C-alpha cells in the first residue's frame, strides 16, 4: 500500500529581523563585577563602533525557541526517513556519539592548552589515526583537513611535494597534469586546480568504468603527476581494474589519489592501500556517520603510504613512548605529542588540529561497531542498494548493467518521453515522504538519479520507496501534470531559482531599501 | 532480501571486487563496545585533559564565552543536525532561512554588504580571501601583517604555494604592537591586497581606516581578519573602516572550544564582488504563488558546476556551527552582544591594570586592546605558566615563545565575561607569588 504524505500544520514564521521589537532581550548576564572605567579611556573613539549594531534582532528567549522550532519543521532529515542522496551517505547519526562529543573534558578543552594537560585529546586523535590506517591500509594519516574537498587539496599537494622531492623541482615542473574521470565529483578538478595542476579528463566506458586505453594514451606523455579516482566510482560501480589502473599510472611516474567519498562500500571488505592507491581522503561525515548538520561540519582525513608520510600537514600527532596507554590514564608522563619537526611537510592546512569534535564522534562510531559491525554496515549498505536496483528495473532505465555497490544510478529516459524529467520525479517523491536522490549527477549520465539508501534503512521502508517510485512512473504516464507540478504537500512550491540568481538578494535589509543588488556579468 | 535479488550470499555482493583484494580476515580494530563501556572509556580518557577544568585565560584564536542553554538544545533538533546541504529547497527551508539570517548577521557585524554561508574556520577563510583578492585584482603580491595569528599565516602560505601569489610580511611595531601603515610601504601596482588582523594576535587594535587608505591608494584591497568576533560588539566594524573583504573566526558565538573545532569561518565582502566570493550563498526566491522562500544561489561560482574554474573547491562547510552562531546572536541580540563585548573589555582592562601594578610584570605594547594583551614576565613565561597551572589550577595565558623564540618572557592573556573578579585576582596573586 503506497503511503503519501499529507499536509500537516505548518507554522508561518518571518525572518527574525521582522519579529524584532526594540527593548526585547533574550540574554541574562551577571552584573559587571570589576571597577568600571569609561570605554573612551581604554579605546579611542575612532576605534569604537558608532552604529549601535543597528538592525540586529531584539527578541526574547521564547521568540528564539519558537522561531527555530517552527522553521526546523520545514526541513526533511534522516530522522524522518530515507534520505537516499547518492554519494552523500545519509546514514543514522547516533545520539551516543553526540553525547561523547559533549563530554566536558573534551568540549571545554582549549586548543592551545599545554600538551601535557591535553593528553586525552591527543590520545583520541592517535587512536582514530590507528583505526583509519587499518581500515584503509594506508599508514600515514593527518586528521587536520576540515572536509572532503579540504582533504583532497591536502592529498594533491602531498602528491606534488612528493614528486618535487623525488624528481627535483625542475623535472617535477613538467609533471603538472592531473587525470580525472568524467564522472568525478566537481571538487576533484577544483582541488587539483588549487594545487597548480592542469586537469585532463578521462572518458568512461559504456560499462561505466575508467577507459583503460584512454588512460594509457593520457599517460604516454610523461607529464602526469597523478590520477584522482573515486572507487567505487560515482556510478556506484567498483573499478574492477583498479590494480591495472594503478600500475599504468605508477609506470608513468604518477601517483594514485582515491576520493574516499564512497569508502562506506569498502570498510571491512577491501582496502585501498592493498589496491595500489597512494593517497586517499575519507569523509568522517559520510562513512563514519558524523552528522551532516545541514551542510557541515565535516572532517576529511588524508591517508597515505609510508613513503608519502613526511609530506603530510604539521603538526603530526605522534606517540612518544611505548608505555601501555590504557593502563594508567592518569599518568603524569605525556604519551602523545604534537610534532612540528617535519621539514618536507606541505605545511598547515587549518588552524589547530582539525575538526576535533568530528574525530570524537567517528572514533565512537568505530568503537561501538567493532570489526564485525563495520563490515555488517558495509554489507547492509550494498545489499540495500542492490535491492533498490532490482526493484526499480521494471520502471526506470538503468544505464549500466553491472551490479552496483552501495549506490545505483537510474535515469528518466522512459519518463522523458512523456515530458516528465528527473527533476519532476524528484519533486514528486517529496509528496510520498521521501527525500529525493542526488539528481543530474554524475554529469555523464543524462537525467541521472543517483540513489544511496545506506545501511540505516530496513526492508519495509525500501519497499515503500520502490512502490513510490513505481507509482510515480505510472503517474508520469497517466497524469503527467501531477508530477510536473509537484510537490503538492510542501509549504512552498518550486522556487524560481533563475530569478534568484539574476537579481540576488543575499541578506535582509530594513524595508526602505530592499533593492536587489546589481551584479554585472554571469 | 538476498533471495529476492537473486544473490546467493553476502560475499557474492562483492564479486566485482577482485578476489585477491577482498579481505580474508577481519579488521584489526576492537570488538564492539556497549553504550556503558563506551561512555566510561571516553570519560576516562577525558580525565587526561586536565586543562579543560582549569580557570582559563587562554585566547589566541579560540575563546571561552558563555553560551545560552538554548543554543545546544536547538541545534540538536533532528531537523537541523541530521539534514544534508539544502539541495531540495521545498523541504529544506528551515536550514535555508537560518543561513539567510546568518548571512545577514555577519553583514551587520562586519559592516559589509554580503556574506557567504560559512567557511571551515577563520584561518581557511583568510587563505580564501587572499586567493579572492588575486582573482579580483589580477595582481599577485599580497602583503600580510606579521601580527596575524601565526597559524593563520601558516595556512595562507600552504594555500597560496601553488597559486603564483607572493606573500610578503609587514613587520609590526614592537613598541605599540600595531602594524603601522609604513610597514606596508612595499605596496605597489602589483599588490592585490594588504591583510591585517584586528584586534591582532597580540590583542592590539589596528588602525584599520588608515590601512584601508594605504591599500586603496595603490588600487589594492584591504582584507581584515578577526579572530575574536566578540570584538564586533564594541569596535568599529571593518566595513565602516573601509575593508573590502572581512574574514573572521565565529567560534566566540556559542561554539564550544572542543580542542580547536569544528568552528565556523565568516566571510563578507562588497556587493560588487558577489560573483567572486567562495562558498555557498543563500538568496531569496519566490514560488509561482508569490510565496517567499530561500535557495542556494549563484552556484555558477561553485565547484559542482564550474569544476576547475570554480572560485573555491569548498563544498561541505560548517552549516551546523553557523546555525549555532545564528541562534547565539539572535538570543543575545543587539544589546546582549554589546553587553558581552563591554564586559570583556572592562574585565580585560581591569586585569591588565592589576597585573601592571605587580613589580616585575609589564605590558610591552602601548596600543589599545579589546580583551587580549601581552604581559612580559621577569623570567621565561612557559615554565612559569606550567607552574601556575599545576600549583594554582590556573591557565594564565599562552607563552609567545611557542610562536616566536625571541619572546621568551611574553605571554598572551585573554579575559572574557566568564572570568570573575575572583579568578582575575587569583591570576594576579598567582603571578605575584611565582615571580618571587
The residue ranges of chain A in which pLDDT falls below 50 over 5 or more consecutive positions are: none
Which pair of chains forms the biggest interface, and how many residues does each contribute? A-B, 198 and 201 residues
CATH topology of the largest domain in chain B: Aspartate Aminotransferase, domain 2
Q: Which CATH first-tier class of the largest domain in chain B would you pick?
A: Alpha Beta
Overall CATH class of the largest domain in chain A:
Alpha Beta
Approximately what portion of the residues of chain A adopt beta-strand conformation?
5-15%
CATH topology of the largest domain in chain A: Aspartate Aminotransferase, domain 2
DSSP helix fraction of chain A:
25-40%
User: How many beta strands in the DSSP annotation of chain A?
Assistant: 12
The total of helices of chain B stands at 13
Amino acid at each position: 500500500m503506497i503511503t503519501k504524505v499529507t499536509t500537516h500544520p505548518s507554522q508561518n514564521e518571518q525572518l527574525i529581523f521582522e519579529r524584532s521589537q526594540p527593548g526585547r532581550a533574550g540574554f541574562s548576564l551577571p552584573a559587571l563585577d570589576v571597577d568600571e572605567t569609561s570605554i573612551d579611556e581604554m579605546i579611542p573613539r575612532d576605534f569604537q563602533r558608532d552604529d549601535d549594531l543597528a538592525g540586529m534582532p531584539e527578541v526574547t528567549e521564547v521568540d528564539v525557541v519558537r522561531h527555530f522550532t517552527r522553521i526546523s519543521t520545514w526541513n526533511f532529515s534522516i530522522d524522518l526517513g530515507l534520505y537516499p542522496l547518492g554519494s552523500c551517505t545519509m546514514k543514522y547519526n547516533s545520539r551516543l556519539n553526540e553525547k561523547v562529543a559533549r563530554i566536558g573534558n573534551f568540549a571545554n578543552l582549549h586548543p592551545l592548552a599545554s600538551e601535557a594537560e591535553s593528553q586525552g585529546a591527543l590520545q583520541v586523535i592517535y587512536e582514530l589515526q590507528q583505526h583509519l590506517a587499518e581500515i584503509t591500509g594506508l599508514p600515514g594519516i593527518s586528521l587536520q583537513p576540515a572536509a572532503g574537498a579540504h582533504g583532497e587539496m591536502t592529498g594533491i599537494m602531498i602528491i606534488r611535494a612528493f614528486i618535487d622531492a623525488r624528481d627535483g623541482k625542475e623535472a617535477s615542473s613538467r609533471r603538472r597534469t592531473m587525470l580525472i574521470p568524467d564522472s568525478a565529483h566537481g571538487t576533484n578538478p577544483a582541488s587539483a586546480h588549487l594545487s597548480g595542476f592542469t586537469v585532463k579528463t578521462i572518458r568512461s566506458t559504456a560499462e561505466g568504468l575508467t577507459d583503460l586505453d584512454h588512460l594509457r594514451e593520457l599517460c604516454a606523455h610523461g607529464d602526469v603527476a597523478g590520477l584522482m579516482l573515486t572507487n567505487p566510482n560515482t556510478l556506484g560501480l567498483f573499478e574492477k581494474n583498479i590494480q591495472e589502473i594503478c600500475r599504468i599510472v605508477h609506470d608513468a611516474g604518477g601517483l594514485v589519489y582515491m576520493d574516499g567519498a564512497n569508502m562506506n562500500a569498502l570498510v571491512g571488505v577491501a582496502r585501498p592501500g592493498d589496491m595500489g592507491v597512494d593517497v586517499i581522503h575519507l569523509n568522517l561525515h559520510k562513512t563514519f556517520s558524523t552528522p551532516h548538520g545541514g551542510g557541515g561540519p565535516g572532517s576529511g582525513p588524508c591517508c597515505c603510504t609510508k613513503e608519502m608520510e613526511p609530506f603530510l600537514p604539521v603538526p603530526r600527532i605522534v606517540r612518544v613512548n611505548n608505555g601501555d596507554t590504557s593502563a594508567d590514564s592518569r599518568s603524569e608522563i605525556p604519551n602523545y605529542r604534537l610534532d612540528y619537526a617535519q621539514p618536507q611537510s606541505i605545511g598547515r592546512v587549518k588552524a589547530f588540529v582539525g575538526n576535533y569534535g568530528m574525530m570524537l564522534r567517528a572514533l565512537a562510531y568505530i568503537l561501538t561497531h567493532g570489526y564485525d559491525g563495520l563490515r555488517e554496515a558495509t554489507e547492509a549498505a550494498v545489499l540495500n542498494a542492490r535491492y533498490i536496483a532490482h526493484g526499480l528495473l521494471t520502471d526506470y532505465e538503468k544505464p549500466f548493467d553491472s551490479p552496483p555497490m552501495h549506490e545505483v544510478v537510474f535515469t528518466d529516459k522512459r519518463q522523458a518521453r512523456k515530458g516528465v524529467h528527473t527533476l519532476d520525479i524528484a519533486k514528486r517523491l517529496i509528496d510520498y515522504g521521501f527525500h529525493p536522490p542526488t539528481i543530474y549527477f554524475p554529469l555523464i549520465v543524462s537525467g541521472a538519479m543517483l540513489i544511496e539508501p545506506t545501511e540505516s534503512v530496513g526492508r519495509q521502508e525500501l519497499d515503500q520507496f520502490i512502490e513510490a517510485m513505481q507509482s510515480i512512473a505510472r503517474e508520469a504516464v497517466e497524469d503527467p501534470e501531477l508530477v510536473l507540478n509537484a510537490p503538492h504537500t510542501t509549504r512552498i512550491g518550486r522556487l524560481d531559482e533563475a530569478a534568484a540568481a539574476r537579481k540576488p538578494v543575499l541578506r535582509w535589509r530594513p524595508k526602505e531599501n530592499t533593492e536587489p543588488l546589481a551584479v554585472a556579468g554571469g | 532480501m538476498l533471495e529476492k535479488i537473486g544473490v546467493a550470499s553476502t560475499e557474492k555482493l562483492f564479486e566485482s571486487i577482485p578476489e585477491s583484494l577482498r579481505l580474508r580476515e577481519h579488521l584489526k580494530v576492537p570488538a564492539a563496545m556497549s553504550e556503558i563501556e563506551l561512555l566510561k572509556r571516553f570519560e576516562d580518557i577525558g580525565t587526561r585533559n586536565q586543562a579543560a577544568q582549569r580557570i582559563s585565560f587562554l585566547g589566541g584564536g579560540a575563546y571561552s564565552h558563555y553560551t545560552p542553554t538554548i543554543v545546544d538544545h536547538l541545534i540538536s533538533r533532528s531537523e537541523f543536525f541530521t539534514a544534508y546541504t539544502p539541495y531540495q529547497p521545498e523541504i529544506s527551508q528551515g536550514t535555508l532561512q537560518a543561513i539567510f539570517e546568518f548571512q545577514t548577521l555577519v553583514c551587520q557585524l562586519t559592516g559589509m554588504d554580503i556574506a557567504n554561508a560559512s567557511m571551515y574556520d577563520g584561518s581557511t577563510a583568510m587563505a580564501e580571501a587572499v586567493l579572492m583578492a588575486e582573482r579580483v585584482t589580477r595582481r599577485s603580491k599580497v602583503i600580510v601583517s606579521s601580527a596575524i595569528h601565526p597559524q593563520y599565516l601558516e595556512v595562507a602560505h600552504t594555500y597560496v604555494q601553488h597559486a603564483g601569489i607572493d606573500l610578503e610580511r609587514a613587520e609590526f611595531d614592537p613598541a605599540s604592537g600595531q602594524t603601522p601603515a609604513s610597514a606596508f610601504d612595499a605596496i605597489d601596482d602589483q599588490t592585490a591586497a594588504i591583510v591585517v588582523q584586528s584586534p591582532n594576535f597580540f590583542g592590539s587594535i589596528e588602525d584599520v581606516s588608515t590601512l584601508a587608505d594605504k591599500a586603496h591608494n595603490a588600487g589594492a584591497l584591504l582584507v581584515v581578519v578577526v579572530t575574536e568576533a566578540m570584538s564586533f560588539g564594541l569596535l568599529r566594524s571593518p566595513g565602516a573602516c573601509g575593508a573590502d573583504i572581512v574574514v573572521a573566526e565565529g567560534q566566540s558565538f556559542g561554539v564550544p572550544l572542543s580542542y580547536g573545532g569544528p568552528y565556523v569561518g565568516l566571510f563578507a565582502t562588497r556587493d560588487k564582488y558577489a560573483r567572486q566570493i567562495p562558498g555557498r550563498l543563500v538568496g531569496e526566491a519566490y514560488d509561482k504563488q508569490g510565496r517567499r522562500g530561500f535557495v542556494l544561489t549563484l552556484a555558477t561560482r561553485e565547484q559542482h558546476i564550474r569544476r576547475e574554474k570554480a572560485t573555491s573547491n569548498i563544498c561541505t562547510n560548517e552549516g551546523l556551527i553557523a546555525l549555532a552562531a545564528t541562534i547565539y546572536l539572535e538570543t543575545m541580540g543587539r544589546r546582549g552582544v554589546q553587553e558581552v563585548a563591554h564586559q570583556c573589555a572592562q574585565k580585560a582592562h581591569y586585569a591588565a591594570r592589576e597585573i601592571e601594578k605587580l613589580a616585575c610584570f609589564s605590558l610591552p605594547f602601548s596600543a589599545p586592546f579589546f580583551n587580549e594583551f601581552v604581559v612580559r614576565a621577569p623570567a621565561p613565561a612557559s615554565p612559569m605558566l606550567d607552574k601556575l597551572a599545576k600549583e594554582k589550577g590556573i591557565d594564565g595565558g599562552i607563552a609567545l615563545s611557542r610562536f616566536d623564540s625571541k619572546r621568551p618572557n611574553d605571554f598572551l592573556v585573554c579575559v572574557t565575561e566568564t572570568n570573575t573578579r575572583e579568578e582575575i585576582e587569583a591570576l594576579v596573586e598567582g603571578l605575584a607569588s611565582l615571580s618571587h
